[in-house]
Write a structure and sequence with these properties.
five-stranded mixed β-sheet, globular, 203 residues, alpha/beta, 14% strand
């Protein structure tokens, strides 16, 4: 777990793999041992609100990229949706009375950035991505490495890479904002976004 000082605030960053049930223990232990005032998660405010209210069963993948993600992670364990790393963060933070904060863009901001970053040609070429992913032989030896390798394929085109960089910068800015009002933050961030967030924080 990396720690960054933002003024008087200590921000600890916990990388997680979205979907893995084994992350439940990792997240719960991190919150219990660090006892933060704020638990921040790398999802948008709408998703945070949805996860708080959701009491149904497992959900199916929404697109081909998610299907490849699920199939790849199943080499180690069967992933589930909603993502346990975030549902557990909500549960434990609520139990401890910690404030919960969404780090990622809201839907309107994300859409505006998507339109600004991703060209029409790149959207058209998404069909090629599907064909490439079908043939891709992932070489990862751990779930974390797989997610990073998967992300490099899905978000490799320049427009999509630019969009992810903006998301990382946005999350870093949110952490700076949160850090002005508290002394301790635990940021639970998808492993493929951690390096970019740390870079945006100047860490």
């Amino acid at each position: 777990m990396d720690e960054v000082r933002l003024g008087d605030a200590s921000v600890k960053i916990l990388p997680v793999v979205r979907g893995l049930p084994s992350e439940i223990h990792l997240v719960a232990n991190a919150i219990d041992t660090t006892a933060p005032n704020v638990v921040a998660v790398s999802i948008g405010p709408e998703e945070l609100q949805t996860l708080r209210a959701y009491h149904g069963g497992p959900l199916e993948p929404e697109n081909f990229e998610e299907e490849v993600y699920v199939a790849g992670l199943s080499t180690w364990e069967t992933p589930t949706k909603p993502p346990p790393c975030f549902t557990e963060a909500i549960r434990v933070a609520d139990r401890r009375g910690a404030r919960l904060e969404a780090l990622d863009m809201d839907e309107v901001t994300y859409t505006e950035n998507y339109v600004d970053c991703v060209s029409g040609l790149e959207v058209v070429f998404q069909g090629r991505l599907e064909r490439r992913l079908k043939k891709k032989q992932f070489r990862a030896k751990t779930p974390q490495d797989f997610v990073i390798e998967w992300d490099a394929e899905v978000n490799g085109p320049p427009g999509f890479a630019r969009l992810q960089s903006r998301r990382e910068a946005f999350m870093a800015a949110r952490l700076r904002q949160i850090g002005t009002s508290t002394e301790s933050v635990l940021a639970i961030i998808e492993v493929e976004r951690v390096k970019g967030v740390l870079a945006a924080l100047g860490a």
